[in-house]
Amino acid sequence: MKIWSSLLAVIALVFIAWVGAGVLHLSTFFGIVLPYLALIIFLAGFLLRVIKWGKSPVPFCIPTTCGQQESLPWIKPNKIENPTTTWGVIWRMILEITLFRSLFRNTATEKHDGNLAIGSAKWLWFGSLLFHWSMLVIIIRHLRFFTEPVPVLIQGLEFMDSFLQIGIPLLYMTDVFIVLALSYLFLRRVAIPKVKYISQAADYFPLLLLLGVAISGILMRYFFRVDVVGVKELAMGLVTFRPVFSAEIGPIFYIHLTLVSCLFAYFPWSKLMHAGGIFMSPTRNLANNSRMVRHVNPWNYAVKTHTYDEYEEEFRDKMKKVGLPLEGEG
Amino acid sequence: MYNGGKIIAGLIIFAAIITSPFLLNIGKADEAPQPSLDTPAINQMSEKKCVESAEFMRTGHMQMLNDWRDQVVRNGDTVYVSNSGQEYEMSLENSCLKCHSNKQEFCDSCHTYAQVDPYCWDCHTDTKGAGQ
Fold first, then answer.
1. pLDDT, position A185
2. Residue A302 burial by CB count (10 A; 0-12/13-18/19+): exposed, middle or buried?
3. Which of A243, A248, A277, B119 could form a disulfide with A237 if both were Cys (CB 3.0 to 4.6 A apart)?
4. How many CB atoms lie within 10 A of CB B23?
5. Using one digit for the tens of pLDDT, what is the confidence trace for B75-116?
6. How many other β-carbons are positioned within 10 Å of the β-carbon of residue A196?
7. What average pLDDT score do residues A188-202 get?
8. What would the pLDDT profile of A129-186 be if each residue is shown by its tens digit?
9. Which residues of B touch A (CB under 8 A)?
10. Where are the domains positioned within chain B?
11. Can you tell me whether residue A224 is helix, strand or coil?
């Protein structure tokens, strides 16, 4: 049910875009209004969500660690897995964000001859890494539609991505990778009963939406073909706030653009916000320096204390009279 | 906000990256290229038409050229019958470039704009068709 409703939602979006742009010719709405709206929702939603997180206090120093903590000078500390300095944290965050180190430690528990065995499980890490890096390359590659002249960096990336020279237009490797990776991530949720049990529509929908984006893009590039110069003219018009339609662009373009717009608009309100959340995770972004620096709970109120020194000061005369030992003289 | 300075700095960087296509194009006027049809061969034609319709060629010329290459190189078939029934020689240099002898103003204008780098010219030259 959760799978079917998600699939239905993506198909409905495709259908709306196809009818709206292909049949009713509402290209101004689907080509100009919707992308602008989606970008505003994405940016505002993203910023608001992160600011909201920033307002949450972190009561305890809770970094998760998996290495030797810095202690005595002759015990070698693990500076990245158990960082005690800001630089250590920065290194750890860079490696976490670019290589998903914590996911690399993913384990699977299975029964072998009646015994429970825990082994490493790297497929999820590999699938995620493949998806995220392909996504990044694809996004950067798309900047060729938004820049004139196209920067050398983007040209180089595109050259490397298509250097196998398969077919015309040249096949991008990342196009294949992203579909494979997303298919794996989706099938994993469907095929493994334990994962399926905890999967919600909010897990299936983004996967299917991303698959829809990738597949519509691939269909547009390799099969249905649209006027690329017309597309770039529209894209450049959008980023210079002078959008124009000089050429008739096929409905597949509007389907792709609508799905992308929906992805952008959906992003800040969904699990996809882990993109911003990773930076805000106290288990990742705090240094494990609780033995050196006192982490004060920000919501601690001023506790009324009465120290022994104050106590002694108050009862000095009485204590002296009965001969109790005193810390301070006077 | 806790650690407000770091978070705001991060958000400013994020917003700058997201809006970079807008920021990089401030004050730039974009003009789409107009591939030039002004060549001696085309000017002499009474009816200016390509192998197929302009709409088809705009989106499908690369796949057509790829098919032509396969047909000629692998099957030895060099005759292309267009939709209108007319026959053409399947040849980039002898058919396409005979009329479109201005590679720079025709092919390159759109390819450069859309950042497409076709490998046609790894083997073919663009001068033969112009009779130079």
1. 97
2. exposed
3. A243
4. 12
5. 999 999 998 888 999 998 888 988 898 888 899 999 999 999
6. 14
7. 94
8. 999 999 999 999 999 999 988 999 999 999 999 999 888 889 999 999 999 999 999 9
9. 1-4, 7, 10-11, 14-15, 18-19, 21-22, 24-25, 28-30, 32-33, 55, 58-60, 62-63, 65-66, 110, 112-117, 119
10. 36-43+51-132
11. helix
CA distance A250 to A231: 10
* Angstrom distance (rounded) from CA A262 to CA A255: 11
CATH topology of domain A2-321: Fumarate Reductase Cytochrome B subunit (1.20.950)
- Residue A107, strand partner residues: A120
Bridge-partner residues for A109, per DSSP?
A118
Determine contact: A237 vs chain B, CB below 8 A.
yes
What does the block give as tokens for A6? 């998600």
Instruction: Select from A89, A220, A239 the residue whose CB has the most chain B CBs within 10 Å, as the one to mutate to test that interface.
Output: A239
**A54, A159, A250 member nearest B7 (Cβ):** A54
How would residue A200 be classed by pLDDT, with cut points 50, 70 and 90?
A: very high
pLDDT digit string (tens) for B32-67?
Answer: 888 888 888 888 888 888 999 988 998 899 999 999
Q: Given B1, B3, B32, which is nearest A233 (Cβ)?
A: B32
For residue B22, the chain A residue with the least C-alpha distance is A239
Closest Cβ–Cβ partner in A39, A226, A229 for B32: A229
**pLDDT exceeds cutoff 60 at A18:** yes
Of A148, A165, A276, the CB nearest to B30: A148
> Is the CB of residue A169 less than 8 Å away from at least one CB of chain B?
yes
* Tokens encoding A242: 């002078």
- Residue ranges per structural domain of chain A: 2-321
